[in-house]
Amino acid sequence: MSHTLKELFAYIRQPRILSEYDGPEAQRFFDLHMMLILALFSSMFYMSFLSIFIDLDSFQHQMDQEMEIIGPWGIFIAAVIIAPLMEEYFFRYGMRYHRSFLSSIILALGFTAFVFIQGLSLIPAVIISLSVLVIFIYAKYRESKLSQSERGIRISNVIHHKFFSHAFYFQAIVFGLAHMSNFVLDSGTNILILPLLIVPQLILGLILGFARMKYGFIANLYLHAIYNGILMTVAFMANSTATI
C-alpha cells in the first residue's frame, strides 16, 4: 500500500486540521490520482457486490429524466463542472478556516435540503454555481486584506479545533445523504434501501475531506470533477452499448 493511502486511512480514523501541502507538484498529482483510483475501485466494487442482492435497475436515476431535457452534454457539464463546484464549496471549502467553519455546516445542510425539496435542475444549478464563484472570489479577497492580528486566536478558532473531527464525519454523512436525491422517489421506491445506494458517495466524501485539508480547494475540486467525469463517461458508454 502506498504512503498516500496509508496516510488517508490514518486520517479518516483520526481527522485533524493539517498544514496544507507545499511539496512537489508531481507528488501532489500522483497522490490525487491514487485517491481517485481508490474512490473509483471502491465504488465499482461495492455497487457490483450490492447488485448481487438488490435489483439496482428498479431504482430510477434522476439522470434519466434530466437527459430528456438537457441532453448528454448538459448532463456531463452539470456533473463534471457545476456539481463539483457547488458541492465542494458547500461541503468542504469552509472546513479549513475557523471563520467559516460553522457557516460551512449550515451551508451543507441548506444545500442538502435544497436538492431534496426542489431537485437540482440545470438552471438553478447554474445560478447557484455562479453565486458560489462570486462568493469564493470575494472571500479570498477579504482574507487577503486581514491583518495578522485579525487572524489571531479567537473563540471560533477554539471551536474549530475542538469539534473539527465531529464536523468532518458529519459533512461526509450529509454529503452522502444529499445524493439520495439522485434517485426518483415515488410510491414504488424502497426508501429503506436508498442509504445502501449512497455508500460510494459517503466513501468519496471521506476521501475528498482528506484531500481538501491536505492539498487545497482547487486540487480537491479537480479530484471531484475527474471522478464524476470518469463515471459519467462509463455510464454513457454503457448506455450506448445497450442501444446497439
Give the secondary structure arrangement, pairings included:
Elements: H1 3-13, H2 25-50, H3 62-91, H4 101-117, H5 122-145, H6 155-178, H7 194-197, H8 199-215, H9 217-243
Helix pairs in contact: 2-8, 2-9, 3-4, 3-5, 3-9, 4-6, 6-8, 8-9
Provide structural commentary.
The protein is globular. 25% of the residues are buried. The protein has 244 residues and is an all-alpha fold. The longest helix is centred in the first third of the chain and has 30 residues, at 62-91. It contains nine helices and no strands. Residues 147-152 have low confidence and may be disordered. The protein has helices at 3-13, 25-50, 62-91, 101-117, 122-145, 155-178, 194-197, 199-215, 217-243.
Counting H and I runs of at least 4 residues, what is the number of helices? 9
Count of strand segments: 0
Beta-strand proportion: under 5%
> Would you list the SSEs in sequence order as H and E?
HHHHHHHHH
Cα-based radius of gyration, to the nearest Å = 19 Å
- Helix/sheet category: mainly alpha
Instruction: Please tell me what the overall shape is.
Output: globular
Low-confidence stretches: 147-152
Query: Helical proportion?
Result: over 70%
Task: Characterize the largest beta sheet: strand count, sense, and whether it forms a barrel.
Answer: none
Q: In total, how many domains does the architecture comprise? A: 1
The N- to C-terminal Cα distance equals 40 Å
* Overall average residue pLDDT: 80
Summarize the structure.
The chain has helices at 3-13, 25-50, 62-91, 101-117, 122-145, 155-178, 194-197, 199-215, 217-243. The chain is mainly alpha-helical and 244 residues long.
